[in-house]
Amino acid sequence: MKRARKILGVVALVSVIAAGGFLAFFSLKYPDAGPTPTIKVEATPARLERGSYLANHVSVCMDCHSTRDWQLVSGPIVPGTEGKGGERFDESMGFPGTIYARNITPAGIGQWTDGELYHAITTGISRDSHALFPLMPYQSYNNLSEEDLLSIITYIRSLKPVENQILSTQLNFPLNFIVKTIPEKHTPAAEPNRNNAFEYGKYLVNAASCIECHTQAVKGEKVKGMEFAGGREFPFPNGTIRTANITPDEETGIGLWTKDVFISRFKAFADSSSQRQNADSAKYYTIMPWTMFAGMTNEDLGAVYEYLRTIPPVKNQVEHFTAAPSQNPTASK
Fold first, then answer.
1. How far apart are CA 232 and CA 221, in angstroms?
2. pTM for the whole thing?
3. To 10 degrees, what angle do helices 197-207 and 298-308 make?
4. Do 105 and 159 meet the contact criterion of CB atoms below 8 Å apart?
5. Domain ranges of the chain
6. Binning pLDDT at 50, 70 and 90, where does residue 187 land?
7. Containing H/E element for 35?
C-alpha cells in the first residue's frame, strides 16, 4: 500500500511539473505576431481629418473607449469622455470574464511609441506584450491600409488627455490562455479603390467590424453560415438586445431595402435632436452606435450597401428585444 501511494505521489508530482513546464513554454511562445515595428508617424492635416473620420464614424474606436449615455438612443458618447476608457464588459453581457476598455488619450498611452500603437491595433499585442481580448477588433483592423492605420494613430495622438485609471482585464480560464494564440502577424492591406463600390464597401464593412456584432456566436466562436444574419445577443439589465439580420434576405433581412432607404436609416441619427432621444421603450433599445455611423458620408454608406447586397442571403427572423423577467411586461410592446 505504501509503495502504491508513493508511486501515485510521484506520478502526481511529475504531472504537476509537466503541466507547469507546458504553461511556462506556452507563455513564452505566445503571443507571437512578429516584432513591434519601428515607425514614426508624420502627423499631417489630411491624416488627422481621415483619422478622425475613421475613429469616430467607421471603425468607431470611440465607441468602446469613451463613456456612452445609455439613457439615450444608441448610447451616444458623453462629451468630454472621448478616449478615456473604463467601459466594463463582463459576464452579465456574455463575456468570458471582465474586460475594461483602455484609456487611449495621452494620459493613458502617452508613453507608447507609434510602433507600439500600430502593433496593438493590427495584431492585438499590447505594449507589455500581453494579448488583447478581441473585443478590440484587431483581426479586422489587421486588414486596414497602411495610410488609414497611420491616420488613426495621428488622430488618437490628438485627443485631449483625460486622467482615468483603468482596472486590469481578467479573463476566465481557459480563455486567459487561448487569447494568447489569437494575434497574428500583420501584412498591410493595399489601399482600397474608392471608385469600385463593391471593393470599397467590402473594405468599409471590415473596417467597421460589422460581422462581429451581426453574426451569432457560441462561446466566442462565430456560427458558420450565419455571417451577417444577426441574432447575436447582448444581455442588459432590462433585457436582451439582438442584432439585426443585414443579409439581402427579402423576408428577414434588408433584401427589400433600396440604397436610399439604407442611407436614410443611418442619416436619421445625424442631427442633434435625434441624438438626444430618450431610450425609454423597447423599440429604442439598441447596441448599434447609430449616432456615430451617421457621420459616414452618403458615398461610403452607399458602398457598404452595394457590398451587403452581394453576400449570401440568410433567412433568420430576429426578435430584437426580450424584456428581463423583472421588467414591466408592457415594456417590450
1. 11
2. 0.87
3. 100
4. yes
5. 34-191, 192-324
6. confident
7. none
